[in-house]
Amino acid sequence: MLTFNESGWDEHTIQSEHAFGLGFSKCLYAARRVVVTSRGQHLAFNCDEALDQAELEVVAAPDADPKLTSVVLEGVDLPQLDQHIDRITSGFPLPVVYNRVPQARRHSLAAKPIATTDIGPVYLWGTDTGEPATARVLYLQGLLIGSLTGTSTGTTARST
Description:
Structural class: alpha+beta
Oligomer: single chain
Number of domains: 2
Number of strands: 11
Strand content: 25-35%
């Protein structure tokens, strides 16, 4: 159902980009408990058990929508997350629901006219509206990695 610290990238990407798989394992340090439902399977575990490499049981979830994957983090202790979740998820390529509220993802690939370039997908602010850019916002695989002014306007570049 899932792997920890194992890359899902193809061999060429692993060799050329030095890609490795730590994405999901971040959940183990951010939450007390994780519940994953995907492709008709369900896994729920306490993070301490997973970190201790305990055996985790995957069970059938016949009523789950086979087209959806749900990752629920319980017991997350990030007191200011409510104020930052919209900004954090603004470039995510997949829909994000936080405390049952869908996030806008205003800089996602689906939200903007994107140009394909040698460095990956790029959105240049103003190409669709004619407005001048006054800031830069940079994403790597949907994660905000930098901005010049911290505003929501500007040049948006991503690497996938």
